[in-house]
Amino acid sequence: MQKVDISVVIPVFNEQGNIENLCRRLLKTLDSTAKSYEVIFVDDGSRDETPALLQKLFRDRSDVLRIITFNGNYGQYVAILAGFEHVHGEVVVTLDADLQNPPEEIPRLLEKMDEGYDLVGGYRAKRKDNFFRTYASKVVNQIRYKATGIKMVDHGCMLRVYRRHIIDEVVKTRETSTFITALAQKFAGHPVDIAVSHDERIAGDSKYNLYKLIRITFDLLTGFSLLPLQIFTMFGMLISSLSSIYFFVELFKKVVTHHHGYGLHFAFVFLLLSVIILGIGLLGEYLGRAYFAVCGHPSFVIRDILEKK
Length: 309
Ligand code: UDP
Ligand code: MG
Hints:
The chain has an eight-stranded mixed sheet with strand order 7-5-6-4-1-2-3-8, sandwiched between helices. Helix 5 packs parallel to helix 8, helix 6 packs across helix 7 and helix 9 packs antiparallel against helix 10. The protein folds into two domains: 230 residues, Spore Coat Polysaccharide Biosynthesis Protein SpsA, Chain A, CATH 3.90.550.10; 69 residues. By secondary structure, the chain is α/β, with parallel strands linked by helices. Helices cover 51% and strands 16% of the residues. The site of uridine-5'-diphosphate has 16 residues, from strand 1 and helix 3.
């Protein structure tokens, strides 16, 4: 397959109600740019009608569509990485399949890139998610900035445009945890953020629940910085200083005033125990990452690729 100007990478998981609409609006927008393009859909193990719909779309437009199908569900960011490994474009665009990122915004991002930027990130100015999601995301973006120093407005917004060299670097790292967006930001030389519109999900439900969101935040922090570990160490030092003081106070009481009673002792032991458990958990986060890196397990398995030969 020859080189194209633009590659669009879209992770898809159970999006039967959106995929045709998305494809139609996206191709129309891309046609209007007068640039050559390809659209790579990565089917992340969908269990609804999505795979059949993708095949149908491919039959109609095999000139521009490419479909990568996973054998199971590996997650949005893994799907994006698999797409990145197969791009032919000089410029790479990512967006969600649920039409929350309107494809019509893409030309605006491309124009911005022509001003000399190598990464144009979208941020959701008026976000159409529930209050909890919107607020939590603001907090997480702040934490990410404080912990990693990576400057970007909204790492959760998938509507982004990259120059190819950034994508090549991302692929080289084999990083598939979360926040490919933060990683790419790190590799960019001249990034910029612009406001993009954000729509409500038209069909289907968000694939994220509270548990997944917490996992993502943890991945982000442990993947990019040692801050959680450092905070833990500082906390440990604080606790041990306090407990030494406490110990000497108790000792003083016992020796001088012959005071009795164990309640506080127990509370203290429980407190220490909780610190230890927290510490073990944190160590596990880092160990788990190292373990997977050492094993060299493949991060995903592709079952099938539909593309014009
Ligand atoms: N997605 C995916 N695999 C998953 C979960 C989601 O490929 O395991 C895709 C999904 O189809 C959509 C994008 O990732 O294109 C964002 O998912 P979603 O809209 O559920 O996330 P939200 O907008 O709620 O953050
Ligand atoms: Mg969405």
